[in-house]
UniProtKB/TrEMBL annotation:
Residues 2-141 form the NADPH-dependent FMN reductase-like domain. GO terms for cellular component: cytosol. This is NAD(P)H-dependent oxidoreductase. SUPFAM superfamilies: Flavoproteins. GO terms for molecular function: FMN binding; oxidoreductase activity.
Length: 184
């Protein structure tokens, strides 16, 4: 069974990216297991904390490394990624040289009420992920503009958006399978 982890780059309880994550997971095929890799309990990264690497950060790294592939849903804050998400990537990149995302297929998607659907944030996120050796899916890109009613009770209500998300997931699972084959 393929194991897909997902990271929501927002810690807000009413996060639209969390809503998108929940709707997206429901669209995965039955033979795919999805699990959340939470970032909300990670402390602010500091080199002072590295000598006694926090258990919560170890757990975070282990969860990343246990996944066959990871989907990151990022909000866009001030045309970039939220600090909480960057902080999580800092932890995943330490200790020095121990890149938990290294060799892992990763897809990026994001939701915003704004028209560009987190495109600017995703450009930054993809650059950071490439630096930490993730195998980032280039296409399709997932720019989701969340208008009122688009996601209701955990489901995407618009058929066109739903079909797009299904295609996006199929492409990502293909990306994951290619990487598994390459490393077999
Ligand atoms: C935003 N928002 C926003 N939206 C956008 O499309 N581009 C942007 O640059 C920003 N900048 C921004 C900065 C800050 C500090 C906040 C709080 C918000 C709006 C943002 O897309 C909206 O709040 C989403 O609901 C955030 O996603 P979550 O947290 O709901 O998943």
């Amino acid at each position: 069974m393929t194991k897909i982890g997902y990271i929501v780059g927002s810690i807000g309880s009413t996060s639209i990216n969390r809503q998108l994550a929940e709707a997206l997971v429901k669209l995965l095929p039955a033979d795919v297991e999805a699990f959340e890799i939470s970032i909300k309990d990670l402390p602010f990264f500091s080199t002072d904390l590295e000598a006694d690497f926090p258990q919560v950060a170890r757990d975070f790294k282990n969860q990343i490394e246990s996944a066959d592939g990871i989907i990151i849903l990022t909000p866009e804050y001030n045309r970039s990624i939220p600090g909480v998400l960057k902080n999580a990537i800092e932890w995943a990149s330490r200790p020095y040289g121990d890149f938990s995302f290294g060799g892992t297929p990763v897809a990026v998607i994001g939701a915003s009420p704004g028209g560009i659907g987190t495109a600017a944030a995703q450009q930054h996120l993809k650059a950071v992920l490439s630096h930490v050796n993730a195998i980032v899916m280039g296409q399709p890109e997932g720019f989701v503009q969340v208008t009122p009613g688009l996601i209701e009770n955990g489901d995407v209500t618009n058929e066109g958006t739903k079909a797009f998300l299904e295609g996006y997931l199929a492409a990502f699972l293909g990306h994951v399978a290619r990487m598994q084959k390459a490393h077999a």
